[in-house]
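Anyone else keep sequences and structure tokens together like this?

Example one:
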Amino acid sequence: MNTRIVALLGGLALCMLPNLASAHCGSCGEGDDAHADHEAHAKAEKAEKAIPEGAKVMFVAPADGATIKGPVKVQMGVEGRTVKPAGTIEAMTGHHHLSADDKGIAQRTVVPAVETCIHFGKGQTETELKLAPGKHTLTLQFADGAHQSYGPQLSTTITITVTE
């Protein structure tokens, strides 16, 4: 009788252990085939959560409140981070996302691939926008190599007026 109880409890203990046969990254939940170095990814993920004081994204151009004849030339900058292409999973790196007439994205949320949001996954820092004449808001959002937003601290919004 005691042998059955021990066997039953042993079986329950095994069921409660994580599935060690399929290694998944604790940070991203992906399997071994998703990225080779789970330990490096976990370290980068931990470092990403702490955004240094003074880190920010900015519009180098245009200036907030500017009136511009289209097309709109946009230059993007960042301090406290390094611009790297999407897919680069390294601490303190990421790439820009630009939304027209939309809002910023909450921290650790994947920036959506929608018509109003441009992903600069190759690490670009300049672009040209064709916007209809009128008043527009431009929101710059910095995100990590997996397109996860760094949140409001690495986001900024300006308002411009486009003529013609």
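And example two:
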Amino acid sequence: MKARLISGMLATTLLATAVAPIGCGYYLYPERRGNSSNVDGGTLVMDLLWLLPGIIPGVIALIVDFSSGAAYRSGGGRSAVLMSPKGHVAVRLPVSSQPLQLEIRLVTDRKVLAKKTAMVGPNIRPQSVEIQIGDVQSHRSEKIYLEVASANGTARFPTTLAVTP
């Protein structure tokens, strides 16, 4: 009787541990990895529900999601950069521990459509920069990307800008 109970508990724990990644924010939200603020309540509740089948799967889900950053929402919860129908894009600049000059650009694969320069640093308040390309219709056939350049190099967002309705 005792051996049957222990083997049942062991089987339940192993099954729950094997199935735990299905409900884990690490797999559901890979774009959130590396975030560190704004805990997502849905992911937290989902991880806490894994404590019901056993302490091990719940603790594993919590550790994986919080250590990877997948339990945190990124800004407004979206990763896409949106452009208004009139071609406006607003970019919130990051907080930096070192003074840096950033150049924010809207680019296609062939050319720079618009650019603005801004400073970030420890003594500079967080700010947003608005860039405008003008008529979006003339660039409808081209993929438009957001690019940020500094003295350290250039980074391009991997997704194209989506035009809001």
